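Hi P.,

Sorry for the delay on this. The queue was packed all week, but I finally got your sequence through. Input first:
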Amino acid sequence: MTTENQKPDVHVEVRGLRVVGSRPGEPDTTIVHDIDLDIGRGEVLALIGESGSGKTTIALSLMGHARGSCRIAGGTVRVGETDVLSLDANALAALRGRRVAYIAQSAAAAFNPSRTILDQVIESALIHGTMTKQAAQAKAVELFRALALPEPDTIGRRYPHQVSGGQLQRVMAAMALITDPELVILDEPTTALDVTTQVDVLCAFRSVIRERGMTAVYVSHDLAVVGQMADRIAVLSDGVVREIGDTGQILQAPAHPYTQSLVAAVTPTDVPPTQRPAQADAAAPLLEIRRVFAGYGRRDAKGWPKKMILSDIDLTIRRGETVGVIGESGSGKSTLAKVIAGLVPSCGGSVLLNGEPLPRDLHGRTRDQFRRIQIVFQNADTALNPVHTVERTLARPLAFYHGLKGERARRRVAELLELVKLSPAVAQRRTTELSGGQKQRVNLARALAAEPDLILCDEVTSALDTVVGAAILDLLRDLQRQLGVSYLFITHDIAKVRAISDDIVVLYAGHRVESGDRHALAAPPLHPYSHLLVSSAPEPRKAWLDEASERCHRPLAPIGEAAADPDLCTFLARCSMRVDGVCNRTAPSLRTFGNGAQVLCHQTEVALAVLQSDLAIEAVETGGVR
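Then the structure:
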């Protein structure tokens, strides 16, 4: 029965929600402070804030759930007429997956690799008895189609590893929606996706939510993303709602200083590169990659791997400069870093450090060569040993490369922590006690302990929230100014690569399709794939997703069958600027444009500029309506 103070149009009502963290022998720590929220029927409310702001904790509370070492200490949560926090374990089990559904950040972790997709998608409907198996299978196919999955009638027969990350994320949405829940919680569902895949997934999610009139909570740290999904946004920090309002108001006229800082962090500050000394051009580059090929799997008689990942890659990194490498998942970015580090041996070409060829794998390299090239991986959780203290983590490379031990090592650990702007007290803590941003700073300090010439930064900000990621970019720039270190900065985020890089290389399917300085990739003409990446970067305004969807999904002009030539353009099947009789018949040549960029394309500089300008004008004029 509806209570007197419950508004008839309010579907979800939260009053005085308080969540605390508990440890044996220690006082409780309040994580969420007396939160009040209302969500209307059919409304999408975004919860946004940095890591540790309490947004996921609040979202899980709507299901009556608290994570390990946490408990819901007070308040009420109502979904419809149900007081969620008063339910016993059986009633909560009946609620979850039936009336309230949850879509997690990592789809890969949510699926059993030994069962088909269809079996797992319909499981919730069978457990809750909402329909027969046959009806559930038909409903699943209907959802696959609504979520724009390929081959919706048969994709359910595949196993999770047989679909892409973006497809699996949409399959997980089908799993959540199979029971027609009253409330769906989307917890950072596109954070791990590259920008072009993110457009597809956001379009699919928004379409299904709108068509079915669902009430939804969208958890994210990215204002540009939630701006495309939400009707209203609640901004959180330290477990407190700092501001709540309509999406347009939050994006365009944020009132609270914290919200203003989030809006400012959406686009990283574009700092001009330092002036390159004249002698730097005359000296040998720090690192040169010449016509490198690399891949995985068993090699044939000629020494070529079964699965080729990198093909004919050239790249130059000068001292004290940053080269950004950008591309979608699977483009070969991480493989390139591993080839430089010696973790993946190349099968052709050469890598030169200070003009001297580097051995292709670790076994032939000297300790000094190891020292001079360090790598910082994307996920600090798996890169750092959770058993070791920060001091022990940093002391190991100090002993290995410089023979520092005892008091000398402790002093250097303190200096390294100061370099990455961490308190000396952090040295005695284990990495499990640190935030995501702190872990990544320790990860960077470990690389700096070797005193390297080059640091390979592999998606070092992609797992971090917007504000923390921006702080890491600032730190990298500061360290470069202080130490003169060079970076290879790998990312799928065009804004971040522009913010930190002197030169940028664009990879697609293992090929270098464009390269040039940071200004060359700021405006047309661009390689058609670079143009797609730039067009797919989220912008904090409500109409952006409609325009991006139009650009990314416009019908391709039909062309004849491609010739059986392995050197044809790898982007041919997705290119909206392809030319019949040319692109499908001959390999593209490398062109040098007036802005200094090198572009692997048949189209001339003038033709690309005209075509890309026309696409932008058309998208704005149509407002994304096809």
